[in-house]
Specification:
With about 325 residues, the protein is α+β, with helices and mostly antiparallel strands. It is about 45% helix and about 25% strand. It has one domain (about 55-310): Alpha-Beta Plaits. The chain contains eleven helices and eight strands. Strands 1, 2, 3, 4, 5, 6, 7 and 8 form an eight-stranded mixed sheet that branches.
């Protein structure tokens, strides 16, 4: 049976159309239609179980993330990257495996978008091989922080890094930990750039860098774009398997990218839903951004008013 026909059956079913009418519409047996619906319901249950299983992201991770140790390790890795051939050791495999389970569905996520500021100056100053080493080293440090705070690295787009943190639901009690962890992750990123990466770059008389960070939360669609071949080791043999190429689409990932463009260097811009979900000691580090309506005109579905943005202060 074609995927399009299965999707039509499911769309009719979830629209409240009786199975008998679906059978007449599709010229299929009622038993076959019930089987399709039952299989989909079982998949939905497994996805819900996965979403509601306790994970590392369900805890306040800033309490166990040793930022001083991370800065020290970042300095060491950046130093080595500039001394010898650099090998990138962060993978997006965990992100891909996670998203594969949700292809064709919508899930709630906190999105984090990290843009490098200063890459143009680096491009004009450094040879390509040295530039590549610095960019890879920077991307690795930011990626390690996303993982340390319970998130997943989605992809790299130019000098930008996009990650996400799982949210069980958009209820306030389920938003606290992922939003808090994402905001603390952004703050740690700025510290690592300022105290870990830039001191090493300065010793080589290279231009310093900074980051702009956007964070927002909401619903996203997981989509598949074809397939890719991957080599895996099974009993000391390399075999090729097909894996789906996945990505995230939707309002939240788009709005997060837009928010990032409004941040100043070494600033975090968060959306209203994120701001309302974090503790007061985090909120006081952010100020309401006053933005002209011709630049920012997104309307909140909850309030019917302009969706507010908040920017971090300079003393993070």
């Amino acid at each position: 049976m074609l995927i399009e026909q299965k999707q039509k059956i499911l769309n009719l079913h979830y629209s409240g159309i009786p199975i008998e009418i679906i059978a007449n519409e599709t010229d299929l047996d009622i038993a076959e239609i019930k089987k399709i619906i039952d299989i989909e319901e079982e998949k939905k249950k497994k996805r819900q179980d996965l979403l509601h299983n306790d994970s590392i992201a369900d805890f306040y991770l800033d309490a166990i993330v040793n930022i001083d140790e991370i800065i020290k390790n970042a300095q060491s890795r950046i130093w080595k990257a500039l001394q010898v051939n650099f090998e990138f050791d962060v993978s997006t495999d965990e992100s891909k495996k996670f998203l594969e389970k949700f292809i064709g569905t919508k899930i709630n996520l906190v999105m984090i978008h990290v843009d490098l500021v200063g890459s143009t100056k680096l491009c004009m100053t450094l040879p390509v091989n040295r530039l590549a080493d610095i960019l890879r080293a920077y991307a690795q440090e930011m990626s390690k922080l996303i993982i340390a705070y319970g998130g997943y690295v989605l992809k790299y787009v130019g000098d930008a890094i996009i990650g996400f943190f799982l949210v069980k639901s958009l209820d306030k009690q389920d938003l606290y930990f992922p939003c808090t962890n994402a905001v603390n992750c952004g703050m740690s990123m700025i510290k690592v750039v300022k105290q870990g990466i830039n001191p090493i770059l300065s010793q080589y008389d290279y231009p310093e860098i900074s980051v702009r960070i956007g964070i927002d939360v909401g619903e996203n669609a997981v989509v598949q774009y074809g397939w890719e071949n991957s080599l895996v080791e099974v009993e000391n043999k390399s075999i090729t398997i097909k894996r789906p190429i996945t990505d995230i689409l939707g309002y939240t990932i788009s709005i997060t990218a837009k928010m990032t463009s409004m941040a100043k260097p070494d600033q975090i811009v968060i959306g209203q839903f994120v701001y309302e979900s974090i503790e007061e000691d985090q909120k006081i580090k952010f100020n309401d951004l006053k933005i002209r309506s011709d630049i920012w005109s997104y309307i909140s579905n909850s309030t019917g008013k302009i969706y507010k943005l908040y920017g971090s202060s300079s003393n993070l």
